[in-house]
């Protein structure tokens, strides 16, 4: 029998734990993580901040958003590494249950398919412009979408190889862009210059930073399940955040101030030329393959938990890659900023609930620990937890309706607090004896 992850269309342990022998060195997972952050979308975000804020305003907005992202990434990443599970699979035993995890799978998949459309639009636009408009945007988008889909079909190993090519190239172009900016402009002048465009508030900007990669923070277990221990997760998330969020954002802010524009392609062309633009646009493939990869894991979990269909992740990738490509052709890029803001309040409640359940309440720790020793999934899980759904809804409401503070942080905190209080008041934590009884009952049934 062929192991998952070894077929031509790699299943990549989508519905099982990643075994010890399949774990990877920290630097290899780190490269994939950095690739998710050092992409054109991050430049788009940094340029948007730089166009609407001063350098220091953008710095503090990035810091606030990055701290939120790092905390979420670290906790969920450690849980993913310990259990060897993807986010949507882990959610079954961290508050959401069998059917609740299906909802997570659907929400994350829809969000990432949207991101896939955004990134693919940028890639296709840059490719079409570089070729003088010969292809036309629809054909260029179809070709670039197909390219990324093929890469993702073959699993995490192909993601790693893509990162080894794209990440160094991206960093070289960024370094050259910095050199060009410093050669023609005074750094102190750029740092002290006013925002060239309409003003952005600190709360909105921090939410754009946190919301822009919040899905990436929540799906950290999709990558960290390949880490060997919690220390690897710590270095992977910290270095990724420093290089990808803080580093790329602030460079993009300076460049936006230098050329007085938020048009990313225009900024890169002016600082690094068309060759640099081509390399940076190609690096978009690196984050887009992660979007599609995690989306395929979410859909695979949904099909299994809701319909008991164990579909190969490769085939799922083919279908959703086609959908994402069509979305990019339809012009989802136009909704970029509003899309970021919406993600900033929809996704954080998931993290708040999962972290509280796994690290504070530890409701399913006994069954997870027992099954981990066997290298298997637990034999049982609850179907759905109404308290989870209420906490999720209230977290979203808090982030969406209240403008005080940072909406994405508000939604994360409210969901976690409501879930903790609700579970303490209405539903006692499982004891080991209760968990053992559930397992025995399921085995007998």
From TrEMBL:
<feature type="transmembrane region" description="Helical">
    <location>
        <begin position="199"/>
        <end position="221"/>
    </location>
</feature>
<dbReference type="InterPro" id="IPR001248">
    <property type="entry name" value="Pur-cyt_permease"/>
</dbReference>
<feature type="transmembrane region" description="Helical">
    <location>
        <begin position="233"/>
        <end position="255"/>
    </location>
</feature>
<keyword id="KW-0472">Membrane</keyword>
<comment type="similarity">
    <text>Belongs to the purine-cytosine permease (2.A.39) family.</text>
</comment>
<feature type="transmembrane region" description="Helical">
    <location>
        <begin position="58"/>
        <end position="78"/>
    </location>
</feature>
<feature type="transmembrane region" description="Helical">
    <location>
        <begin position="382"/>
        <end position="402"/>
    </location>
</feature>
<keyword id="KW-1133">Transmembrane helix</keyword>
<feature type="transmembrane region" description="Helical">
    <location>
        <begin position="408"/>
        <end position="426"/>
    </location>
</feature>
<dbReference type="Pfam" id="PF02133">
    <property type="entry name" value="Transp_cyt_pur"/>
</dbReference>
<feature type="transmembrane region" description="Helical">
    <location>
        <begin position="339"/>
        <end position="361"/>
    </location>
</feature>
<protein>
    <submittedName>
        <fullName>Allantoin permease</fullName>
    </submittedName>
</protein>
<feature type="transmembrane region" description="Helical">
    <location>
        <begin position="267"/>
        <end position="285"/>
    </location>
</feature>
<dbReference type="InterPro" id="IPR030191">
    <property type="entry name" value="CodB"/>
</dbReference>
<feature type="transmembrane region" description="Helical">
    <location>
        <begin position="30"/>
        <end position="52"/>
    </location>
</feature>
<feature type="transmembrane region" description="Helical">
    <location>
        <begin position="99"/>
        <end position="118"/>
    </location>
</feature>
<dbReference type="GO" id="GO:0005886">
    <property type="term" value="C:plasma membrane"/>
</dbReference>
<feature type="transmembrane region" description="Helical">
    <location>
        <begin position="315"/>
        <end position="333"/>
    </location>
</feature>
<keyword id="KW-0812">Transmembrane</keyword>
<feature type="transmembrane region" description="Helical">
    <location>
        <begin position="161"/>
        <end position="179"/>
    </location>
</feature>
<feature type="transmembrane region" description="Helical">
    <location>
        <begin position="130"/>
        <end position="154"/>
    </location>
</feature>
<dbReference type="GO" id="GO:0015209">
    <property type="term" value="F:cytosine transmembrane transporter activity"/>
</dbReference>
